[in-house]
Amino acid sequence: MNRYSDSDEELAVIEGGAFYGSDGLEFHWLFSGEWEEAHNAWETLENQFVGQIPVDDLWDAKAGIRIDTPEGPDRVYGVLGLAGLAPYWFEIDTNLYVSDEGDASVDFEAEYALLVTNYWILSAGFETLVAFSPYVGVVHG
Length: 141
Description:
Elements: E1 2-4, E2 10-21, E3 26-36, E4 41-54, E5 59-68, E6 75-86, E7 90-99, E8 104-115, E9 121-131, E10 139-140
Parallel strand pairs: 9-10
Antiparallel strand pairs: 1-2, 2-3, 3-4, 4-5, 5-6, 6-7, 7-8, 8-9
């Protein structure tokens, strides 16, 4: 997927992950980043390494670290989160991030998938990130 930065430069966006484990304990590596094609370099790159355990039939708790390597100094965060299936089949994923400098932020993601046929699925999602201390590029709460 491509998009344009604030300075109208073309960016390639990548997002993905991998996991290992069983129903009782999973380890996840999640990553996302923006590749600036003009300068042939990462504009942003985020890696999360989290462990996930079930706390209910439909909910999992998560804990781990997040490492951001944008242009400039790297940032390290502790991660605490909750993921699961809410009533009416909404998939929820929310995380609290606290940096090594004490900065905190929360993200929230909700997604709903409607099976139209066996081959067509209509999916809608909502995602937000709120910072509780000044942070470049994030709405201050």
